[in-house]
Prior knowledge:
CATH superfamily of the largest domain: Isopropylmalate Dehydrogenase
Number of domains: 2
CATH class of the largest domain: Alpha Beta
Order of helices and strands: EHEHHEHEEEEHEHEHEHEEHHH
Largest sheet: 10 strands, mixed
CATH topology of the largest domain: Isopropylmalate Dehydrogenase
CATH architecture of the largest domain: 3-Layer(aba) Sandwich
Strand content: 15-25%
Distance between the termini: 23 Å
Number of strands: 12
Helix content: 40-55%
Strand order of the largest sheet: 2-1-3-12-11-4-5-10-8-9
Shape: globular
Bound molecules: nicotinamide-adenine-dinucleotide, manganese (II) ion
Amino acid sequence: MSKRTLSIAAIPGDGIGPEVIDAGMEVLKAVAKRDGGFQIKSERFDWGSDRYLKKGDFLPDNALDTLRAFDAIFFGSAGDPRIPDHVTLWGLRLKICQSLDQYANVRPARLLPGIKGPLRDVTAKQLDWVIVRENSEGEYAGAGGRVHQGLPEEVGLDISVFTRNGVERIQRFAFELAKSRPRKKLTLVTKSNAQRHGMVFWDSVFERVKADYPDVETDKMLVDAMTTRMVLQPESIDTVVATNLHADVLSDLAAALTGSLGIAPTGNIRPEGDAPSMFEPIHGSAFDIMGKGIANPLGAFWSGAMLLENQGELAAAARLMQAIERVTGEGKHLPRDLGGKAGTKEVTDAVLEAIRTAND
Ligand code: NAD
Ligand code: MN
């Protein structure tokens, strides 16, 4: 019988992106080999800031059509000190997410075995969240402008755009996800006391969508109060849905509470499956450590496990998560940002070894 081929477009991007994505591809191929049912065919695209500085664009003209032909995208990071961040972000990552309409950004946060988060007495059982971020509009819709530049009357506007379709589809996605998790619990985060148009709209759509999910328990929080709840009562939270900006901020806090930004994964999901979804560690290019061989690759590996799960390769996804957890649990090969001494290669080798030697 011929094996299924899973095609992955790897876009390492800038900074430590290539260091963690190349390690991640190695780990994905190892887990595919071990679990047998499928093989991985990958292609690596050198799209990013170096290309921009040479050619004036981050991606070639046909890049989005090229990407559509793949089952999934594995992305590193975008950001380079020589280019303003908004140029890089809009030219590369947001261009892919928005053109492929990957409207659901899923961000799990979980304390892995052996890792001491800053909330010392909290156990792995008490911190297991998924933050669902609206990924196509809202505060990052790109609407706005600058007028009278350089003059005292200069104005800069960023206009949040919330559409009924956009709000409803992300909330339904979050309800479905909450329903699939053991606790069946969803928290809506907005700021509807101060932002009295768009956020009140979010609240009202939620009330309607909620009626279709009687088995999901819900509650609502303002975003500022949510930060304190994440720190003081982590066990009270399960699945969270919030706008593009709010969920962006909350998920960096979630990453820090689980030990480090270097461990946190994310998927930019196109739930309809008519375009590939894109998986990436949530950290950026980390200029301060690039090229030193010390970047934590676990966020990229966990993102790889999300990719496999999204593609229906559940056994391989579980195998990879078990290998990651075995390495964190044993604690002998932890990267520096998690209090250990291991470099990128040592952590990668430890995970590869855990994949090879796992018992069935
Ligand atoms: P960053 O995530 O790059 O780094 C923040 C801090 O965390 C740094 O001290 C860094 O060394 C550390 N860190 C991050 N990832 C790590 C890892 N895997 N292992 C060990 N330590 C790690 O965030 P920043 O400094 O705010 O941004 C740097 C650049 O990255 C900017 O250009 C920014 O725009 C870009 N960025 C891109 C993305 C993306 O592409 N998704 C996300 C965030 C930031
Ligand atoms: Mn962010």
